[in-house]
Amino acid sequence: xxLKRTLNLLDATSIGIGAIIxxxxxxxxxxxxxxxxxxxxxxxVIASIVASFTAFSFAELGSAIPKEGGxxxxxxxxxxxxxxFIVGCLWLFGQTVAGAAISLGFASYFVAIFPFFSLRxxxxxxxxxxxxxxxxxxxxxxTVNNILVLTKIAIICLFIGTGxxxxxxxxxxQFAPNGFLGILQGAAFxxxxxxxxxxxxxxxxxxxxxxxxxxxxxxxxxTTSMILYVLTGFTATGLQDYRVLAESGSPIADxxxxxxxxxxxxAISFGALIATASVLLTNLIGLSRVSFAMARNGQLPSFIxxxxxxxxxxxxxxxxxxALMATLAFVSDLKQxxxxxxxxxxxxxxVLNYSAIRLRKKTPKLKTFKAPLYPLIPSLGIVSCIxxxxxxxxxxxxxxxxxxxxxxxxxxxxxxxxx
Length: 419
Hints:
By secondary structure, this protein is an all-alpha fold. It has helices at residues 9-20, 23-36, 40-64, 71-78, 81-113, 119-136, 138-163, 179-190, 197-201, 210-239, 242-246, 251-257, 262-296, 315-328, 334-362, 376-390, 394-418.
């Protein structure tokens, strides 16, 4: 049974924006500011440029291969099943631990408002509740996501509009306290927040007219989010000393407090709940579809690819990934998770950009969306992703290496067993 094509351009774009704008602004921004200082706005531009290279490759590949699975599926069809399995496992691992951290981010804001609740219980409850929503159907999930996205964009615009007139120039006096290396490290961490555009491609099998819908939805989501990110970073570091933001688990709310406007501060806290819930929702959508694609291709147990007869959703993969995310919510650490997620996804993007080069070589006359300046764009995507990977802590390399080794062993053992 195939998944239903129910998503239009607005739904797909909204899913991308919902995935991008969330934990990156409301939580990870503080970590990145600790490295880059007020120069975080440059870090954001660098990260968005790196993301844009890969976005063009995603758009071209998504229009040519409109199937569930995103980077995994592209690698499977254009390079090799073995490398595709490694890419799929890295993507699933990075996004799962990210989802656990996002659950904790949601719980932190929730408990700050309602302190009588348990942080861990709220985190697990959030993961399980949004898992249940995903089970009902992608269209229903996308409709809820559209509402969440519009709400949090309005709140972010409120923060920018209120705060930009109260910026203190002295907060920019130490613009780049750690030099260009700090800016690059900030870009590597804030890249965590630009990952949502790839989630649209993972839904290729559920998008209407994907050859025309996928490319503009990916680019629209990335461009909109980039503009909001830069304006938010500029406003936050202008309102509050970067060292205060670096130590904060709620940097935008702390920046809003500098305005003295309690209503805006309360709205930001509410916006953080909306943002993290939206990101978690779309994170689960992407995770379940990639695991579904891997099972469909025989690289994971076949029962994971089962589609619900009533709701038309890959319910086994949704339940499995949701349960795993809820379990990891008990042990996640935001800073380590952000680094691990960024490294894992950057490494899959290296392969994805190479897949875009392979697509042109294998099917030069294919009539799909064509990325400009080929092969410069995907080549720059490969190089820029590698540079950001080297800007991340060594621990992220070690964890990713363990995942790749474990995935390789599983793949070889499963292949031998099937033979």
